[in-house]
Amino acid sequence: MDLKMIFFDFGGTIDVYPTDKKQKAKACAKVKHLFQEHKAFSNQIPDDEFEETLICGLKNYYSWRKDEHIELPPEEIFFRFVLDKYKVDKKICDELGEKAAFIIETDGYYRSARAEAREALEAIRNKNIPMGIISNIISRGQVAYSLESYGLTSFFNPVILSALYGKRKPHPGIFQHACEQAGVDVGDVMYVGNSPSKDIDGAKAAGIGKTVLIEYFDNKPSDIGSPPDFTIKDLRELLPIIDALGKK
Predict the structure, then answer these.
(1) pLDDT score recorded for residue 144
(2) Which of 226, 189, 231, 225 is closest to 210 using CA atoms?
């Protein structure tokens, strides 16, 4: 294999993002405050009611997008699925949708980079192998924000987001689009992700040359897919794999 590029998933692969009820409630309350500041609601809504509405709305959206792997812009998600119960004006959703999605994807979790991420990425860069990201995400700004906060921005180009592309993994189009943006053939790419159904199935369907599954503590038992070419627990385990594949 002539390895010319490595693409990574983001959440669960480059960073970890555990959560709990307290953190989710904090994010929901912040989203509610954001919309109330802009007078989106005609009356005061209890925090617990809004939290339930937001969570149920997002679940309805996730179910709606399941078969076609569509990713709507956050503005449309909040207008059509999350806040439709409250008849929030579309202009307000257009103004605040991305801000709300960003809050959910940042304040809703305890995000941090994998402990070994910088060491592994520096070693890969020293081998002159370009790296990029393909991420399923409803916020256009969260991945860039997190990369900057981790000090990892310079390692990745391009960064492809489902919120911008309009399709999400495992749709093969997002993988093929990423390779086109990077100017590489799909067969010369390695893809690293933590989800068998989204990352491995999607990459294989797109024709990606080699797939690597990295174990993640929060993977669901129901998340099953095609067997990867390699399985690792730590990003540093990519280095001997790269060396074994060779690079012309």
Answers:
(1) 98
(2) 189
